[in-house]
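Pilot study result, target chain (187 residues):
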Amino acid sequence: MPGAPAARRPVPRPPDPRPLTGEPLALDLLNTRWTQDGAVRDLLADADGPAVWLAANGLDERFTADPTTLRRLLDARDAIGAAVDGAGPEPLDAVLEHGRIRPTLTGEGPGERAEFADGTWGPAWLAARDYLRLLSLAPDRIRGCAHDACTLHFFDTSRNGARRWCSMATCGNRAKASRHHARSKDA
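Predicted structure:
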């Protein structure tokens, strides 16, 4: 149709290389650093990594993957990691100081909207806020993978709360194979 604006084509992004995706936002940010074949990998160190992470979490429409946003994401990842490791609330509180929740009234009823004085803090603040949400739901279900060589974290949503591995297909099977090998060797 003449005069109609051209449809905006999505920017192609490289695939997300991380072995575990789809965790709640806070843990998904924490899982942008992982170990693969004995080497530490970092999605946020890659040129396209921040954009890949934003897109994977549906944040790419609201925020851009610029260098300042990246610095904020790195700060939030370190702060969430410190909180998970029990290092204290100060680093996470420092990230949370850059935003707030504003109560709203919508057509559907009461609501909330996140506000930031500086939009580059948006994704980092949302991840830090999500960590607080997870703590309020079930702090004992925020877990690190039980495999010694794995650095990934997950939120255990299993019925009995007994999940041990980031993925049964990878770390769980490695542990089973290791135990089987040890038993075979002893026999």
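One observation from the pilot: The two ends are 76 Å apart (CA to CA). A full batch analysis is planned for the follow-on phase.
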